[in-house]
Amino acid sequence: MNRALGALLAAAIAAAGGSASAEPLKIRIGWANVSTHLTSIVAAAPKEIYKHWGDSYVVEPVFIAGSGPALTALAANEIQLGGMSSQALVLAVTEAKLDLKVIGQQVSGGVGGYATTEYWARDDIKRIEDLKGKVVGVNARGSTSDAAVKATLIKHGLKDGQDYQIVEMRFSALLPALESKRVDVAILLQPFNLKAAKIPGMHVLFTYQDSLGEVETVVWMGKADWIAKNRAALVDFLEDNIRLRAWLYDPKNHEVAVKLLAGVAKSPVEDWDEWAFTKKDNYRDPHALVNVARYQRNIDDLHKLGILPTSLDVSKYVDNSLAEEAAKRIR
């Protein structure tokens, strides 16, 4: 009797262990803007695209204002992947002493005729030099938007905290802040820049491309040990994301895709229809591959300008092999 009971208990424990191991990996991913990161729309995407969702992984989107806060959240294990800038990688490695890997591209700016991010000003600011003593609005310090401001103004002899002030606020709050004169220049992502273009007395002062050329704007990065441990599920996630990219940029899906985006953003379809998932949008690599040479150049340039304390060898931190493996599965 005892032997039989022991066998039953062993079987129950084994079954429980098997069930637990079959649970899909929860990937908490930080995102800052609906139209740029797309992380917030993955749960709403057609299930025939996200074929592995619910089996090997699920995504929990976590709103985080920008790369600086995302780095803090990643260090504290509040997220597993962050959509972050080149600045964040350098600061994570050199100052936070984190062992990180970059596993996929999200968006790049000013690449191949695609859009670049714009900084808008009122007409009383006509030149970069006019920003002396003024206030510049960005989403977060440590972000690409923060780097582009510093890079541009340094080239015009203006230093952060000495000649001008940077303030942080959500992307959606930046255009109202510019209109109300709480800031003098603001980064306006799409569709906020299109709204600004319809307001008298507003103009583009400079862009990411003016500041940094082609920019590897946002990439996915996470802790190296966690990525190694969960490689199989992450390859599944990237496979589904690559499939999503193809679906979004297929013209025959445009109407449905922009409705999905507008629904998640809780804004009118008209805000997105003209530009989203076209060459008026940011560039998304079809296979989610990070352009290592571009990423290296961005970091080197920021170091030369004194924005980053040091450079680093990007090839040691970018692992495109997961995205490459994922892409091979799709025919």
What is the top-level CATH class of the largest domain?
Alpha Beta
SSE pattern, N- to C-terminal: HEHEHEHEEEHEHEHEHEHHHHH
CATH architecture of the largest domain: 3-Layer(aba) Sandwich
What is the 3D shape? Answer: globular
- Could you say what the CATH topology of the largest domain is called? D-Maltodextrin-Binding Protein, domain 2
Mean pLDDT: 91
In CATH, what is the homologous superfamily of the largest domain?
Answer: Periplasmic binding protein-like II
* Poorly predicted ranges: 1-20
**Structural class estimated from helices and strands:** alpha/beta
Structure report:
The protein has 331 residues and is of the alpha/beta class. It folds into 2 domains: 2-110 and 215-329, D-Maltodextrin-Binding Protein, domain 2, CATH 3.40.190; 118-212, D-Maltodextrin-Binding Protein, domain 2, CATH 3.40.190. Helices cover 40% and strands 18% of the residues. It has 13 helices and 10 strands. It has helices spanning 2-21, 34-37, 67-75, 86-94, 144-155, 171-179, 192-196, 208-212, 224-229, 231-249, 254-265, 292-304, 321-329, and strands at residues 25-31, 57-63, 81-84, 100-109, 118-122, 135-138, 165-168, 185-188, 202-207, 215-223. A 5-stranded mixed sheet has the order 2-1-3-10-4, sandwiched between helices. It is globular and about 60 Å long.
